[in-house]
Design brief:
Structural class of chain B: mainly beta
Number of strands of chain B: 54
Number of domains of chain B: 3
Helix content of chain B: under 10%
Distance between the termini of chain B: 41 Å
Oligomer: heterodimer
Number of strands of chain A: 15
Largest sheet of chain A: 11 strands, mixed
Helix content of chain A: under 10%
Radius of gyration of chain B: 32 Å
Strand content of chain B: over 45%
Number of domains of chain A: 2
Order of helices and strands of chain A: HEEEEEEEEEEHEHEEEHE
Strand content of chain A: 35-45%
Radius of gyration of chain A: 24 Å
CATH topology of the largest domain in chain B: Maltoporin, Chain A
Shape of chain B: elongated
Largest interface: A-B, 89 and 94 residues
Number of helices of chain A: 4
Strand order of the largest sheet of chain A: 7-6-3-4-5-2-1-15-14-11-12
Chain lengths: ~300, ~900
């Protein structure tokens, strides 16, 4: 056994005392140079809020666009802005450098062409539909071996929902996107009053992340996407409650897509960063969003 | 007996009775009596203990007249011209042995024959034959045949042994034309009073890396969940672990579970597990021999990187009907062996779980005149059968068939109040509903194997086999959570092997035993998916995919078991294989060495292996690969993986009944498939699909290495048996394609593990206590928390930083179990009642851990626990 211990050695866990810089910056086409928000990581044992323990105010931030550097200053706790009044053009290449506590973090991105929602069609169901409201579909098979059925998280209640179908359309010019067409589209439907149900994860489609080249495009150059969200109601006689719906459409790079795809389950994974030497995201994007009143 | 001779015998006895007084003259007068009668008379009346076997004295008649005081002289007179001599053991005790045949210069002979079970007639593969005079050992092939060629013509003191049987000590004569049939019983047998001085270590392990599994003893240890389970028994061996409490199968020396080849009578079986891998498909009682090769294996084996389990089914009793039936908590089983005629026997083993029969599979639901149905059903079933026909003593044809199925059928009306804490009130939960969840899934293994064995000549043994193995997983789902929404999905994957095997054993000389063979395997893979996801009447996604692959693998091998000296045995081998689709020829050299230094046996082995099938699983969608994985053959789009292994070990027997062994191993693998994102798991209906290229996109080529030490001690002393195994080692992997430059702990890395067991058997009672302790499996531990806000979010989202995969470890695992059994006779039946308590300390072993970053205070930790204390009972009846 002594031989064994000598062979396998110590097998400790990294306590993670090192602090990392966290960068958050989104450069939008048609806007000025992006704001850069800097935070730091904290050990697991500490509460994580928005206080001074989290923000970083002593860093040097520089953004270089098309070969010209622009220095940033602290505009608010943890928030850095450039005094330069430049408008970001599509296909512009941006590089970000942050120096903090002797470490340098770098990231780069490209500004995508702008996009605009050309058409929105909202189709609610004619009447409330009988449906499941809670997470009835979530049977955690990995917990079966515990033989503790009360932990299976299968509580099911039924109720009524309005299913609302939303069809989006936007113009996509292949030549404008560039030869690599490596852009991704993120869609989101965010109603103001429905509390999200577990149905969202399975049958509804309030958001989606798709490679733009894979979205069908008709002869006129339109791309379409259809999403579905649910509005729970008390019973089968209730009319569709009036509510606000925010519709958002983002075109961005593959780095942003990887960041988003890794951010949906914080208990199990973290978003993939495109920042060398730090965590977080620096991404160019085109955003169009719209708020509607549905009644 | 003729009257005249009877008188003569009586006269002889009279004289003997006079001569029974010490120092008194002995007078013998036998005239043409059987040797046995003369010896009995002499022994009885003279007070001399004569030890001999019936076989030795059979057939001889003697005449003898003796007058004198020398006992030895009197015995010599009785033995006369027979080829039997007497040796004095102690005062007034003599042992009779055959007169050794003196080696005759220039004349050579051969010892060959079969080794079989004395009770059932089963031929025993892997039995050891040891010629003590020349310190030469060999073992039987899978037909129970052995041959030792070009021996000087003489008689040789021989020990025959096989795990679970008593030894047989006998004299075998190397001659020109006789084939012996050596029968082993459960007690040691001494024939011709030939006590053979043989090594006490694990007997003459001629094959490198082999570990014969003493299933008889291991079955009596607590641990398996109330089942007669061969693969559970393997966990007592050092370096063998379960992959999880309820998933994925076995792990050997830290390698992934798909790197183990399971052979059933030589045919591969892909998923030998039932009940979400809690129970294996291998019923211990149906097997006569189980061999486990770890790391390096002989050239005849291949196709996996880390281990081979070769299990040989029983042929069936040749003389009488025998069988057993048992009922346990989980399942019931039945085993029957019977002769069909003088030349044919059959074995049938059936097992089925019956929880579905107790609870019921269909629950009618009624409310307000509306009827509905809830279905809940899970069962596993396996049927194993083998028919063996022996037209002559040189030929044997066997057909073995295995079929196993797990089926899970569930239909839940959703208009229910689920309350799993009140499991007895199922009917109270349910009301008819138009919303429901329905799933019907099954996964099956089917194997059919025909094998023909022919003793072509004394030196040439031929084995030809044809097999068919099919693995199927099918999942059908219909879910309607909203009246206008539903998902219908049908998914099926299967891998179908058709194989041809030809093996030849050639025994050219005493020092060489050559085995060669060829294999041709055709693999047909197919995976289909038809899914229809309707979110609203106007929003429907349809997925129809069909993925197929054909691959042909051709293998040839040759190996020589060479014994240049009495103490050294070398087994070089070469395995060559080629795969259709442009793969290059793979050459896998193998080498095994064994050196018997008297008090210690040293053994070493090294070899290269190649694996032509990979197990992968989608990590996105619930619509496929939900409860099963898929085996994909290597092809033009998927390269085989390769490994190199080496091991070095020693075995000693410090005292009678005790064996101690220590082995060191090293193993490296290249081209194994590792997930690109270890943290991703199924979380939605949609996924990238089942197209092979898409699924392979979730994996990257990786490297793995493992090294360690394994210690095992076994002892038997009277009614006590002891078992101790300890393993220390590391298993690591890395993914160079992801710029992963350093090795990290592999998923099943267990630095240390210790198993011990104590068993006491007194007449009809058996009690055993056992314990398992091991390091916890690796997990990825976050080292910090941070927050980032997406432009579409109102507040930042908190995340955990996990810079290194598998940088931490779960707490140590420990489990203590006890088992007691008692058997008694009821009429002609042997009834055994066995009770055990699994995890008697009710220790809450942590088998999974999740970190929650969303808490406002310190990061939350949620643990998942293994099985609690479980009492189990089984009743078994044997005919």
């Amino acid at each position: 056994m002594i031989l064994g211990v000598l062979l396998v050695g110590c097998d400790g866990t990294d306590p993670g005392v090192e602090t990392h810089l966290v960068i958050e910056s989104y450069a939008q086409v048609g806007a000025s140079l992006p704001e850069v928000r800097l935070r730091r990581t904290l050990p697991l044992s500490q509460p994580y809020g928005t206080d001074a323990a989290v923000v970083v105010e002593d860093a040097e931030v520089t953004v270089t666009m098309d070969g010209q550097s622009h220095a940033y200053v602290v505009a608010a706790p943890g928030m850095y802005r450039s005094a330069t009044d430049l408008i970001l053009q599509e296909h512009a290449e941006l590089e970000l450098e942050v120096d903090w506590q002797g470490h340098r973090a770098r990231a780069s991105t490209r500004i995508p062409p702008p996009l605009a929602l050309d058409s929105i069609q909202v189709i609610p169901s004619e009447r409330p539909l009988s449906g499941l409201i809670l997470d009835s579909l979530f049977i955690d098979l990995t917990q079966i071996d515990t033989l503790r059925f009360d932990t299976l998280r299968t509580g099911a209640t039924d109720g009524y929902v309005y299913l609302v179908e939303v069809k989006l359309r936007w113009q996509a010019d292949a030549t404008e996107l560039g030869v690599d067409d490596d852009y991704w589209i993120r869609t989101e439907l965010r109603p103001s009053l429905s509390s999200r149900t577990a149905l969202d994860d399975y049958f509804l489609r309030p958001e989606q992340l798709l490679r733009e080249a894979n979205i069908p495009r008709n002869a006129a150059g339109w791309r379409h996407w259809t999403g579905v969200y649910a509005v729970p109601v008390e019973d089968s006689t209730v009319v569709l409650p009036q509510h606000r719906l925010r519709i958002a459409l983002i075109r961005s790079t593959g780095a942003y897509a990887r960041f988003v795809s890794g951010s949906d389950s914080p208990k199990f994974r973290e978003p993939l960063t495109n920042v060398e030497g730090a965590l977080g995201i620096f991404a160019g994007m085109a955003i169009d969003s719209l708020s509607l009143t549905i009644e | 007996m003729p009257p005249k001779r009877y008188v003569a015998l009586l006269a002889g006895c009279f004289f003997l009775s006079i001569g029974s007084v010490p120092a008194q003259p002995i007078e013998l007068d036998f005239q043409d009596v059987t040797l046995r009668d003369a010896l009995v008379a002499f022994g009885d009346l003279q007070g001399v203990d004569l030890v001999y076997s019936e076989r030795l004295v059979q057939g001889y008649r003697v005449s003898c007249q003796y007058r004198g005081v020398d006992l030895a002289g009197a015995i010599r007179c009785i033995l006369g011209d027979t080829p039997i001599s007497a040796q004095r053991l102690r005062r007034r005790q003599y042992v009779l042995t055959p007169v050794p045949v003196e080696p005759q210069p220039g004349l050579v002979g051969m010892i060959r024959g079969f080794v079989s079970d004395a009770h059932s007639g089963e031929r025993l593969p892997g039995a050891n034959i040891y010629l003590a005079d020349i310190r030469f050992g060999t073992s039987t092939n899978e037909a129970g045949y052995f041959a030792i060629s070009r021996l000087p013509r003489a008689a040789y003191a021989t020990r025959v042994s096989f795990m679970g049987y008593g030894t047989l000590d006998t004299m075998l004569v190397a001659d020109a034309d006789s084939t012996v049939d050596l029968q082993l019983g459960h007690e040691a047998i001494v024939q011709e009073t030939q006590v053979v001085e043989a090594p006490q270590t694990e007997p003459f392990a001629v094959e490198p890396g082999i570990m014969r599994v003493p299933t008889g003893m291991l079955q009596r240890l607590p641990g398996a969940p109330g089942e007669s389970d061969l693969l559970h028994s393997l966990r007592w061996l050092p370096g063998v672990q379960r992959a999880g409490a309820s998933a994925s199968g076995l792990v050997i020396r830290g390698s992934a579970p798909d790197q183990i080849l399971y052979l059933l009578d030589g045919a591969p079986i892909y998923h030998p597990w039932h009940a979400f891998s809690i129970v294996s498909t291998f019923q211990s009682e149906a097997f006569k021999d189980v061999r486990l090769y770890r790391g390096s294996f002989p050239a005849e084996y291949g196709g996996r990187l880390s281990a081979v389990l070769d299990a040989e089914l029983k042929d069936g009793h040749r003389d009488e009907i025998a069988g057993s039936a048992a009922v346990g908590i989980v399942s019931g089983r039945l085993l029957v062996e019977a002769p069909l005629n003088e030349k044919t026997s059959i074995m049938v083993a059936v097992r089925r779980s019956y929880l579905d029969r107790i609870v019921g599979t269909v629950q009618p639901v009624r409310s307000g005149g509306v009827a509905d149905t809830m279905r809940t059903g899970y069962y596993f079933l396996d049927v194993t059968s083998k028919v063996t026909w022996r037209p002559t003593s040189q030929q044997r044809l066997s057909l073995s068939v295995y079929g196993g199925r797990d089926a899970f059928d569930l239909r839940l009306p959703f208009d229910i109040t689920l309350n799993f804490t009140s499991i007895l009130s199922l009917r109270d939960w349910l009301r008819p509903s138009e919303l429901f969840f329905e799933v019907d899934t099954h996964w099956d293994n089917y194997v059919a194997n025909a094998r023909y064995q022919y003793l072509f000549s004394d030196r040439l043994f031929l084995t030809a086999g044809l097999y068919w193995s099919n693995y199927i997983a099918a999942e059908s789902i219909y879910i309607q959570p909203v009246v206008s929404s539903s998902v219908t999905s049908r998914y099926r994957v299967n891998l179908h092997d058709s194989g041809l095997k030809l093996d030849v054993d050639y025994y050219p000389s005493l020092t060489h035993q050559i085995r060669a063979g060829v294999r041709a395997v055709g693999r047909r893979f197919r995976s289909t998916l038809s899914a229809h996801i309707q979110r609203t009447p106007g929003s429907v996604d349809v997925m129809d995919q069909d993925s197929r692959l054909l691959a042909l693998e051709v293998v040839g091998y040759v190996q020589d078991t060479w014994q240049p000296t009495a103490t050294l045995q070398v087994q070089p081998g070469l395995r060559a294989s080629i795969l259709s689709g442009g793969s290059r020829l793979m050459l896998d050299p193998r080498l095994g060495v064994r050196y018997d230094a008297g008090t210690v046996v040293l053994r070493g082995a090294a070899g290269a292996q190649v694996q032509y099938v990979h197990r992968i699983r989608d990590r996105y969608s619930f619509l496929y690969d939900l409860v099963s994985a898929r085996w994909v053959p290597a092809s033009g789009m998927l390269d085989p993986s390769r490994s190199l292994s080496a091991s070095l070990g020693a075995a000693i027997s410090p005292m009678l009944g005790m064996t101690v062994s220590l082995d060191a191993f090293w193993h490296t693998a290249n081209g194994i498939l590792l997930p690109i994102d270890e943290t991703r798991d199924k979380d939605g209906l949609e996924g990238p699909g089942i197209e092979l290229g898409t699924l392979l996109g979730q994996y990257t080529r990786g490297r793995a290495r493992a090294y360690g030490l394994e210690f095992m001690a076994r002892a038997r002393s009277g009614a006590w048996q002891y078992w101790l195994s300890y393993a220390a080692g590391r298993s690591e992997s890395r993914t160079p394609e992801l710029l992963d430059r350093s090795y990290r702990p592999a998923r099943y890395d267990v630095p240390q593990s210790l198993q011990w067991a104590l068993l006491r058997e007194v007449q009809t009672f058996t009690v055993s206590v056992s314990a398992v302790w091991r390091s916890g499996y690796p997990i990825t531990v976050p080292v910090a928390r941070y927050a980032v806000q997406d432009p579409l979010d109102d507040v930042p989202q908190r995340y955990l930083h996990r810079p290194v995969v598998n940088n931490g470890r779960l707490p140590d695992f420990f489990r203590l179990g006890v088992m007691a059994s008692y058997w008694f006779r009821f009429r002609s039946y042997k009834v055994t009642v066995q009770a055990q308590v699994y995890n008697i300390t009710n220790r809450r072993n942590v088998i999974g851990r999740v970190y929650d970053p969303s808490t406002s205070g310190p990061v939350g930790v949620e643990n998942r626990f293994g099985f609690p204390l479980i009492p189990l009972i089984e009743i078994k009846v044997e005919l």
